[in-house]
Amino acid sequence: MPYRPILIAAVQAAGLTIAGFIIPLLGQIAALLAPVPLIIVAVREGRKAGLAAVGIAAAVVAVVVSGKMVFVFFFLSFGLMALGLSEGLLRRLRPEQAILAGGLLPLAALAAALTPFLLKAGKDPLALADEYLRTSIIEAQQLYTQLGLTELAQMMASVPENTLYYLVRLSPGIVLVTTLFQAACCYGMARSLLLRKDPGLTLSSGPAFAAWPAPDSWVWGFIAGLALLVVPGTGIRLAGMNVTLLFLLVYIAQGAALVEFWLRKLKLSVLWRSFAHAIILTLPPTIAVVVALGVVDIWADFRKVRGPHQNL
To answer: In which band, very low, low, confident or very high, does the pLDDT at 206 lie, cut at 50, 70 and 90?
Structure first.
């Protein structure tokens, strides 16, 4: 067993996770990348090494944060995501397949673990989600107040009731989109670092991000989600919003891949390309343009990455 890389990966993953508990905002963003070192050690040193690193990292986080539930949460969320993504890389799955495996595996495990508690509580899942959200907002207010971040605390206190209503009912789509986005970021970063350290490494058979197209048939899911938005009935419309959220992520990714393709044509450095993506993906008007580009690319095939039989 290669103990040194296992320990290094475990400490890195644990450190990123612990940062999420003690550093507002930036620490929470860093924590989302905790699976990356675990993916790298699993791919380079083998599945057993990856599993060992996950276990050690979970134990370190549990000791520092002081809680058995933290160990379980880390293992079922970041740990399973890392193992799912590394397995996708080792099996040379296409990027979207590996990301779905890495994102859905922890969600399925957490759902299985939480179901007995929900049944025992005997409450409506939406009511529990509403209670959890309100409690989280109060705890965040207290934390930001203690840290002297009064403006952030006031912002949390002024969240409108209507916003809370929709956040709870759109929580399935939000959780799924957030988890898959995290999985996609961890997959891309881990794959890039692995190829940089070992250019001859054989990984997934999928193309680089700039040449990646989503499966063309997925557009029907997007169309179905949009169609549900105009069907009478609050429940149906909320279901349509959840579905649409998921496919918005898909076509934001495809649109961003197009932007990356054109930026590479201009021979811009990684730094400038990253800056451009950050600007584009933080402004609502440019996000809408990116989604539109992603959808139109299904038929236009701007990068000529599809064969004649693949276009709809």
So the answer is: low
